[in-house]
Amino acid sequence: MTSSKTYPSQVFTSLKELLGMERISQFFSLIARKQKVKSILGGRHQSKLRGRGLDFEEVRHYVKGDDIRNIDWKITARTKETHTRVFSEEKEKPALIVVDQSKSMFFGSQIRTKSVVAAELAAATAFKVLKQGDRVGGVVFADNGIDIIQPKRDRRNILRFLEKVVNRNHELADSNPANIDYSLKEVAMKTRNIVTHDYLVVLISDFQRYSPEVTRFISQIAQHNDVVLIKVYDPLERDIPKTKFVAGDQDTQVSVDGKSKKIRDNFQSGFDSDYQAFQAQMKKHRIPLFSINTVEPLEEQLKEVFKVRKR
Q1: Contact 188, 218 (CB under 8 A)
Q2: pLDDT in tens, 197-210
Q3: Contact 65, 154 (CB under 8 A)
């Protein structure tokens, strides 16, 4: 591709690099029943049954209608009250990974661009879902269009999804920013047409320009599905350097005096308040949101977010 001749290699990703993300899928879990109640994914990926299930969950007082085969006779004898064992049955949880490859993602100040990190997260998530035995598909949205891969329980389906991600990632070199609000509305509507009930929807973006209408679409999807939002950001979007510099894009350039503590503080507080406001808004709909930066190793950040210790 022509883009590789004019940009450093770290600006773009490749299919080989995304396939390598399978190794870090061990550092997090997307099944809510394996998470603590107050964890990032304390969601609805389980159903309590009165009959025999896959995993023991708790012992509680016997309720009329419970399967008598699950009565815990030891606790019943000790407490003189009938107790029954409750099990969890893991339902099928097809996943749809929605990944942003639009122009705002084509930025990185040190190591990788946001678009590359988003692609890596999409790949790691896809492999994790497949290892859990569920169907996985994806939606890739960019300035030049939207690609949809229907969920399947097939490794080749992941390959098709990642190929679409790579293609859209390399298009960023020559793409022009589209109307992001319109694109996101279209993505939200297409996503709602795919996910019906009991899906896991993972949305990966920088969440810079989400309109209230798009937020409403996300909350509507979350009514019958588990939704997880991952914000990808670059440290320079929050902490500007302590020097005077010129920042800009293809159309506009501005001079920034990073030596001013007031400017640095306002820049940082603006980023933090926007993120916290969005996080609080999503919390009202029980939608977890966490952030990943473009500088630190992805596997270390995922281990920190999910608190999963390597065995």
Answers
A1: yes
A2: 889 999 999 988 76
A3: no
Alpha-carbon distance values, 296 to 21, 28, 233 (Å): 15, 16, 11
Torsion of CA 122, 135, 91, 93, to 10 degrees: 30
Alpha-carbon gap, residue 14 to 162, rounded angstroms: 9
Domains present along the chain, CATH in parentheses: 3-37+93-236+274-306 (3.40.50.410), 47-89 (no CATH)
The CB density around residue 48, as the number of other CB atoms within 10 Å, is: 12
Q: How far apart are the first and last CA of the chain?
A: 41
pTM of the model: 0.78
Contact 25, 128 (CB under 8 A): yes
Sort 133 into a burial class: Cβ within 10 Å, 0-12 / 13-18 / 19+.
Answer: exposed
pLDDT tens string 11-69? 999 999 999 999 998 878 765 444 444 445 544 444 433 333 455 667 888 877 678 88
* Core vs surface per residue 199-234: b (16+ CB within 10 A) or e: bbbbbbbbbeebeeebbebbbebbeebbbbbbbbbb
- The one-letter code for the residue type at 146 is I
Distance of CA 79 to the CA centre of its chain: 45
pLDDT per residue as tens digits for the range 259-281: 788 888 888 888 888 888 888 88
Which residues fall within 8 angstroms of residue 296, CB to CB, at 6 or more apart?
Answer: none
Give yes or no for a contact between 89 and 52, defined as CB atoms under 8 angstroms apart. no
**Residue with tokens 């509680």, as numbered in its chain:** 60
Tokens found for residue 199: 């899906």
Q: Within 10 A of 293 (CB to CB), how many other CB atoms are there?
A: 19
Please report, as a single letter, which amino acid is at residue 41: L
